[in-house]
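User: Can you help me understand a structure? I only have the sequence.
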Amino acid sequence: MVTSPSEENADVPGRLFLVVGRLSRALRQAGAPGPGHGAISALATLVRHGQLRLGDLAAKEGVAAATMSRIVAALVESGYVRRESDPVDRRAWLAIATEEGERLVSGVRSNRVQELNRRIDRLPPETRASLVAALPALEELLREDD
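Assistant: Let's start by predicting it. Here is the structure, written out as tokens:
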């Protein structure tokens, strides 16, 4: 079946959603075994933002506080996160990535970036150039939520 250019462009949001999701899943699967995606994501957020209250971390990750509580408890048990009393509110506590947690995030990123690089290297030169040209537009899509 031959599609016209207007038909190809008709579902750009749907196609982009699927390809980004599938690529993300493929890259997650290429990562080293260990904590799941939710835990790695929370840990990466802690590495990026520093110490956070559980509620703030849950909000940044877009999950319920109860879900984040379970994730952080597992990360604490694994030695990737430590808890400290919040100096502003002694009833609350802060989650902080440990050095081991920082190393884990760095290693996972490295594995996933290497896998992405392998995939990009397999693309024909003209497709690679199109991908590079599309990066500013993709980055702009992210800026809308910051």
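Now, to help you interpret it: The mean pLDDT is 88. Residues 99-121 form the longest helix (23 residues). Let me know which part you'd like to focus on.
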